[in-house]
Amino acid sequence: MRSSGAALAALLALSVVLAAPASAGQEVRIKHQGLTLNGMLKTADGKTLADGLVLMVHGTLAHNAMDTMANLATVLSERGLTVLSINLSLGIDDRHGMYDCAVTHRHRHLDALDEITVWLDWLKRKGSGPVVLLGHSRGGNQAARFAAERGHPLLRNLVLMAPATWNEAAAAEAFERRHGRALAEPLLQARALVKAGRGDEVIPAAGLLYCPGANVTAASFASYYSSDPRFDTPSILPDIKLPTLVIIASDDAVVRNLAARVKPLADGKRLRFAVIDGAGHFFLDLFAEDIGDHIETLLAAGG
User: I want to staple 53 with a disulfide (CB 3.0 to 4.6 A). Which of 44, 82, 174, 216 is the partner?
Assistant: First the structure.
């Protein structure tokens, strides 16, 4: 537990961060369940939090300084939109950079929803105006699930960049291809441990996501690999009431056939989609400008 003096010093430091010139962005930190969460706040020229902002969530085991997120944050701030790009903790205190696969995985897929809530509550206390929630890849699924299952008074719009899709057979095949063994055995073990109240128990060398041979708690493994149709973002789009924009990369080699899945659902008002020709899954380089164009169009339409 921090002393009251240390807590006051931390509060003063945060106040300095928020008051400092933000053209280059300033890191802000908050506490959640004993962990420090951090995010990069880029305040657009002439704007304050009261004018609203874009809250951005990165993809699988990634971070807010990756090119996809950093480039987009710069583009949006140049267009007059304040941006808060957060790092999901993934169970690590004050995490930066890509997740280190040597560290035992204790995080769960839906932890992101709790952390999005904490950031939105913090923004509300700071007097923030309306928020556009934006998620990329797995972060797109997490943002969509947040909007569909929880919501928040500050939320006005949702932007999903190449949001994750899912089906059970493909997930099992991908696990076997990456980790060199069938998914069924470690998943059965993980689910049994969770059912027995031993979700914190580590399964050695189970592997998780992009980390072959990684040590993983049973609860973490089960959260990412148990059969759950809501991993499939298109299937939950009808549950989202916010004006939503799905941004699709024409050359996406990670999330395939997204346009075909989204187009029948789009009505041009509550749900819109845009295909960016030539873009890959990470929307690198000048493709961030295309995303900026589509977000400006969404906001100008009052959606």
Answer: 82
